[in-house]
Design brief:
Layout (H helix, E strand, L loop, with lengths): L12 H23 L5 H21 L1 H19 L5 H37 L5
Helix pairs in contact: 1-2
InterPro entries: SecE_bac, SecE_sf, Translocase_SecE/Sec61-g
Protein name: Protein translocase subunit SecE
GO cellular component, one term: plasma membrane
Length: about 130
């Protein structure tokens, strides 16, 4: 038997640097928000949002961001292929599920009461 080859993901140094810069920008955004405490709130929020927007933009230029966008496109493409049930079909299936739940509830209740009767009344002789 041959062992399955191990798969190693190689990330170029540029992508690693971009991801590190994304982390630095996120930390800088949070730090800027708190360090600008003497400024009006709207300025603090704008600084936070600008730095976070820069982090998001840089993330999407790195390979993991490009893969995430590709995954989103593939998911949207697959979602368009889904055949959704009509209102009538959805209502029928919902009613089937409710009916099944009621039948199972009755079955489990009857089973519970039967076992209670067998154990407590017949075997142990405890009359309530």
């Amino acid at each position: 038997m041959s062992a399955s080859p191990s798969v190693e993901t190689v990330t170029p140094a540029a992508d690693k640097a971009k991801l590190a810069a994304v982390g630095v920008l996120v930390v800088a955004a949070i730090a800027a928000f708190y360090l600008l405490a003497s400024q009006p709130l709207w300025q603090r929020v704008i600084a936070l949002l600008l730095l976070l927007a820069g982090a998001v933009a840089l993330f999407f230029r790195a390979e993991p961001g490009k893969r995430l966008v590709g995954f989103g496109r593939d998911a949207a493409r697959e979602l368009r292929k889904v055949v959704w049930p009509s209102r009538k079909e959805a209502t029928q299936m919902t009613l089937y599920v409710f009916a099944f739940v009621v039948v199972m509830a009755l079955f489990l209740w009857l089973t519970d009461k039967t076992l209670e009767w067998v154990f407590y009344d017949l075997i142990l002789g405890w009359r309530r």
